[in-house]
């Protein structure tokens, strides 16, 4: 199950995670359109390979494996996925 970016990312958007993801599945990056307006960063569940690299990079501990998302953040599984459903192909 793909990794998930949870609530602590909002207001931080540190983006260190985007530099280590081997499959470039975390967006928007600071140099992409929409970064300034984005509430947080999002992991594309269709592309994440569960490599764990991003989790340790996050300075606010916002990233968890999909099957370890705390109950209070369960909605972030769908929030991450929905971001990519809304993006043009
Ligand atoms: Fe990218 Fe790996 Fe994090 Fe998935 S677990 S978002 S592939 S760095």
Describe the secondary structure blueprint for this structure.
Layout: E1 3-5, H1 16-20, E2 26-27, E3 42-43, H2 53-57, E4 63-65, H3 75-85
Antiparallel strand pairs: 1-4, 2-3
Bound molecules: iron/sulfur cluster.
Residues 3, 20-21, 23, 25-26, 43, 48-54 line the site of iron/sulfur cluster.
Explain the overall architecture.
The chain is of the alpha+beta class. It has one domain (3-84): Alpha-Beta Plaits (2-Layer Sandwich). The protein is 24% helix and 11% strand. The protein has helices at residues 16-20, 53-57, 75-85, and strands at residues 3-5, 26-27, 42-43, 63-65. The strands form two sheets. Strands 1-4 form a two-stranded antiparallel sheet. The chain has a two-stranded antiparallel sheet with strand order 2-3. The longest helix is centred in the C-terminal third of the chain and has 11 residues, at 75-85. The protein starts with a strand and ends with a helix. Residues 3, 20-21, 23, 25-26, 43, 48-54 line the site of iron/sulfur cluster. Residues 3, 20-21, 23, 25-26, 43, 48-54 line the site of iron/sulfur cluster (SF4).
């Amino acid at each position: 199950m793909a990794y998930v970016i949870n609530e602590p990312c909002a207001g931080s958007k540190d983006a260190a995670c985007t530099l280590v993801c081997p499959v470039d599945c975390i967006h928007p990056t600071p140099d992409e359109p929409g970064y300034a307006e984005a509430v947080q960063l999002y992991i594309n569940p269709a592309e994440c390979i569960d490599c764990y690299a991003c989790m340790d990079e996050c300075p606010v501990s916002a990233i968890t494996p999909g099957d370890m998302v705390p109950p209070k953040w369960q909605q972030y599984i769908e929030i991450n996925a929905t971001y990519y459903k809304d993006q043009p192909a």
